[in-house]
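INFO worker-7 received task bundle
INFO bundle size: 2
INFO processing item 0
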Amino acid sequence: MTPAILEQLNAARAGAKPALVVRRLRDNAQSLWIDGLLVDGDALPAEVETTLLDALRSDRSTKLEAAGESWFVQVFNPPLRLVVVGAVHIAQALVPMAQVAGYAVTVVDPRRAFGSDVRFPGVSMSNDWPDEALAQLQPDARTAVVTLTHDPKIDDPALVAALRSEAFYVAALGSKRTHGQRVERLRAAGFVDVEIGRVHGPAGLPLGAVSPAEIAISVLAEMTSVLRRAA
């Protein structure tokens, strides 16, 4: 990797921007793509460019043959993040599962009795109100936001902030009736149906989950499906 590309790549990683380094294996000619734009090196054949988005979505570096050449596409994605709003029993199951799946997890709950280090040892915690916490966390396209409290005073500010972000997955726990009421509140807050449709509610795949652990599995499964569906 050239010093110029390495410097720009490190800056991209510090800024949590997705990046790709593409090498032509015949002569090690290199191109750097950041946020979907070519920032260093020569333009690539169209057959190679079409693979770049798939590589980012799948988180997989790949070797391919195109335009009579061999190429290696190396992925440098920002880390996956999960913001869990509500330090409830389901969160206690979801957090370690998400960590095993590679997510950096932050639990947000202004109720200090719930959001404590005792209940979530070693987990990043915020006792700010969700809108304040999300303003600090700045969810991006590699971030999922899940609300679990059933309390509109806590969940709704988080959903509003998440819908105004690039978060790839936004979900809220609750029954279909509860979600219907949530939709009406979001409409009243000025969101249109296309925007509200980003909210997965009730959160999780319909697995028939009952226990907190099963519900956590269904949420993580749906999150994974949304993350990888275009891969």
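INFO item 0 finished
INFO processing item 1
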Amino acid sequence: MRASRHLAQFNIGKLRFPLEDPRNKDFVVGTEIVNRIAMQSRGFVWKFETALGGAVPEMIDEDPMVVVNMTVWESVADLKHFVWNTLHKRFYQRKAEWFSVLAENHSVMWWVRPGHTPDLAEGYARLARLRAKGATAEAFDWDYAAKTSERVDA
């Protein structure tokens, strides 16, 4: 049975040091490895990339130290497995080495139709919606996904 929807996720991080700073070497090298793991993971559909690869510096929140990540997955369960049961988890546990703590939500999920590839404007709009209105079916976080997993992953 073909899925009627896929899960998009968008997250941002504010680097503590410029991307090319030697203190970010493990992050930069690790991002390439973690991205390859993601693309080979169950349920992976698509990843936003530029010529720079996976750690995409963009002018988000008018800050040149912000990097973004956006992917599409078949389900919340598939994304959750990748985030918490692969090498990604070890890099996530080291995030304080590379990223500043953000005062607002830095990650958002939402449903897209199969075949749709969101752009950065859509990702940022969903993040802004989550920040302004809290978690809803249109823009949600891990807590909302966990509470509604039987309904949202069906």
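INFO item 1 finished
INFO post-check item 1: The beta strands are 6-15, 44-47, 56-57, 66-73, 99-100, 107-112.
INFO post-check item 1: Helices lie at 25-40, 76-85, 87-93, 95-98, 120-133, 142-147, 149-152.
INFO worker-7 idle
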